[in-house]
From TrEMBL:
Manner of cofactor binding, per the entry note: Binds 1 thiamine pyrophosphate per subunit.
Organism: Polyangium mundeleinium
Swiss-Prot/TrEMBL cofactor(s): Mg(2+); Mn(2+); thiamine diphosphate
Cross-referenced PANTHER family: 2-SUCCINYL-5-ENOLPYRUVYL-6-HYDROXY-3-CYCLOHEXENE-1-CARBOXYLATE SYNTHASE, PROTEIN PHYLLO, CHLOROPLASTIC
Enzyme class: transferase
Keyword annotations from UniProtKB, A to Z: Magnesium, Manganese, Menaquinone biosynthesis, Metal-binding, Thiamine pyrophosphate, Transferase
GO molecular-function term, one example from the UniProt record: 2-succinyl-5-enolpyruvyl-6-hydroxy-3-cyclohexene-1-carboxylic-acid synthase activity
Boundaries of every Thiamine pyrophosphate enzyme TPP-binding domain copy: 448-564
Pathway this chain belongs to: Quinol/quinone metabolism; 1,4-dihydroxy-2-naphthoate biosynthesis; 1,4-dihydroxy-2-naphthoate from chorismate: step 2/7; Quinol/quinone metabolism; menaquinone biosynthesis
Domain Thiamine pyrophosphate enzyme N-terminal TPP-binding: residue ranges: 8-123
UniProt name for this protein: 2-succinyl-5-enolpyruvyl-6-hydroxy-3-cyclohexene-1-carboxylate synthase
Length: 593
């Protein structure tokens, strides 16, 4: 078989992906993937991105898909290259994000005979993918539509019924390079003919709540006063179904306080005067006395399970409360005691439930809701008082980033401390803010690559907040970040290692030397020359005024800027402890009923 027949096979596959709605392809270097890379390059409708590191490439594609809600394809050569996709595959699976992995492979005869750069790539990602398929070796005897059928099927399976990653394994024999004039003259006519006969349009399913679920929940909500609406991690809003609007409508109809995490898409936006929002709920529910006084009768959860430890403890204290979980995919019940799981789109379900309940039940908040309103206001007042100091603090960085993001920006937040600091210290803002996050598997890897990918398709500024340990996990992805066509601001909180562990019991169980050696693990890397090595603008700040200036300047300039926000390593835990102690004492003195 000539090399050009390999290319014809690959071209048909790539053209069908474009016909199926794939718009972005991330190409990693390699020899075995030559036909796929060249085919992608000449396929109309595909935007091609390149990445040296397969791990970063997969997260880059994942970041794109979080914004577009379409599968980006990422392709690599044979051997261990595809194994580097695994962390992003797991995150895509856990967070139900469409992603298409295309691994080039050696032919069957090279497997299990000690051939170089050959491993078993069959079902390489195990149960973490929704679907695995072999593209098949190029075969003149096969129907010309065969590669198109595989492409269409693979792209469709990334989108539903349960969105997530799909793996296509594509085998090729040498020679891999064009040996005849290419692209050939009849390419366009041939592909048009193949796709006309072989393209199947696929409509992805959307799950609606059954009427009996809405009826049962509406009946319960209409006779309950002590209820809460809790919004956990969710993808960036679809324009046609914004979650915040639906959650606010449901809170208005029920009279229940709205508790929304940073990653829920329901935390930021203009305040509704007739709705009680309690964004400080994690802090408040961590106070045993407050949690005990506020026993709920009904909990309505929208989206993935809330990651708040305060809320988890609250559930354990009040196991008899009715709890309805509304999420489109999966068994979203870590505490394993939900009253009901409603497998449906949270925004559409909340809107339908609000419509079924009718106009607001009250003209003013109930005593239950008013108690949450007053406690929330008290918590944010104290948070503001505790956030600032003569030097820059983790609390101040969280507040300044949220306040300083433009109204049209996307905010990407890292796991570990950054997302907790935003929940703890940054109050809701009147302008909306789309939030990107990796709350599927909640890892700290690939954050820079993912934000860089998002920046290529967002058409608006992207701001990433992460810790110094996280940036070391993904430092080489600054090579991807520097290509950002929009302002991409990477804010690194430099607190000398994994300070999240200071807030866990291990910090009190071992001596300081062991704690630093095995847990915080600070690596003293100078980020200034690291940024320079990748051609990324850099600023180091250690005061609020300097940070505000650097942040504002970075948002004016297309391309990437890395801002190192230097904070004292021992400040965060002490500041949180002091704040929570004063809040508990104040709550004990206040009559919130």
């Amino acid at each position: 078989m000539s090399t050009n027949e390999h290319l014809t096979w690959a071209e048909t596959f790539m053209a069908a992906l474009a016909a199926a709605g794939v718009r972005d392809v991330v190409v990693c270097p390699g020899s075995r993937s030559t036909p796929l890379a060249l085919a992608a390059d000449v396929t109309a409708g595909l935007r091609i991105h390149t990445a040296v590191d397969e791990r970063a490439a997969a997260f880059f594609a994942l970041g794109q898909a979080r914004v577009t809600r379409l599968p980006s394809a990422v392709l690599c050569t044979s051997g261990t290259a595809g194994a580097h996709f695994t962390p992003a595959v797991i995150e895509a699976s856990q967070s139900h994000v469409p992603l298409l992995l295309v691994t080039a492979d050696r032919p069957w005869e090279a497997v299990d005979v000690a051939a170089s750069q050959t491993i078993d790539q069959t079902k390489l990602f195990g149960a973490h993918v929704r679907f695995f398929v072999e593209l098949g070796l190029p075969d003149l005897g096969a129907p010309r539509e065969a590669p198109a059928r595989v492409a269409l099927h693979a792209a469709a399976r990334t989108l539903g019924p349960d969105p997530g990653p799909v793996h296509v394994n594509a085998r090729f024999r040498k020679p891999l390079e064009p040996s005849q004039p290419w692209p050939d003259a009849d390419r366009s006519t041939r592909l048009t003919d193949v796709l006309r006969r072989g393209t199947t349009r696929v409509f992805a399913p959307r799950t609606a709540a059954p009427p009996e679920a809405l009826e049962a929940l509406a009946e319960l909500a209409s006779h309950t006063e002590r209820g809460l609406i809790v919004c956990g991690p969710a993808p960036v809003d679809r324009p046609e179904a914004p979650l915040r609007e639906a959650a606010v409508a449901l809170a208005r109809a029920t009279g229940f306080p709205l508790l929304a995490e940073t990653t829920s898409q329901a935390r930021f936006g203009s305040a509704a005067p007739d709705v009680v929002a309690c964004a400080a709920f994690d802090t408040l529910l961590r106070d045993p006395a407050f949690a005990a006084r506020h026993a709920p009768d009904l909990l309505i959860e929208l989206g993935a399970p809330a990651t708040s430890q305060g809320y988890a403890d609250y559930l354990a204290k009040h196991p008899t409360a009715a709890r309805y979980v509304i999420a489109p995919h999966g068994w979203n019940d870590p505490s394993q005691d939900a009253t009901a799981l409603v497998l449906a789109d949270p925004a559409e379900t909340a809107r339908a439930l609000a419509a079924r309940l009718g106009p607001a039940r009250r003209s003013s908040p109930s005593l239950w809701a008013e108690s949450f309103r007053r406690a929330d206001a008290l918590a944010w007042s104290l948070a503001e008082a505790h956030a600032s100091a003569a030097h820059l603090t983790e609390a101040a960085v969280a507040r300044l980033v949220i306040a300083g993001c433009p109204a049209d920006a996307l905010f990407s937040v890292g796991n570990s401390l950054p997302v907790r600091d935003v929940d703890l210290w940054a109050p809701p803002r009147p302008s909306p803010l789309g939030v990107l996050h990796q709350r599927g598997a909640s890892g700290i890897d690939g954050l820079v690559a993912s934000a860089a990918g998002a920046a290529t398709v967002a058409g608006r500024p992207v701001v990433l907040l992460l810790g110094d340990t996280s940036v070391l996990h993904d430092l080489t992805s600054l090579a991807l970040a520097r290509r950002a066509p929009v302002p991409l601001v990477v804010v690194v909180v430099q607190n000398q290692g994994g300070r999240i562990f200071e807030r866990l019991p291990i910090a009190r169980a071992v001596d300081v030397d062991r704690f630093d050696k095995y847990f915080t693990m600070h690596e003293p890397v100078d980020l200034a020359p690291a940024a320079a090595a990748f051609g990324v603008r850099f600023a180091r700040t250690d005061t609020e005024s300097a940070f505000v200036r650097a942040f504002a300047e970075a948002l004016k300039t297309p391309g990437a800027t890395l801002i190192e926000a230097v904070v004292p390593p021992d400040d965060g835990r002490a500041r949180v402890t002091c704040f929570r102690s004063e809040l508990a004492a104040t709550l004990a003195r206040e009559d919130l009923s």
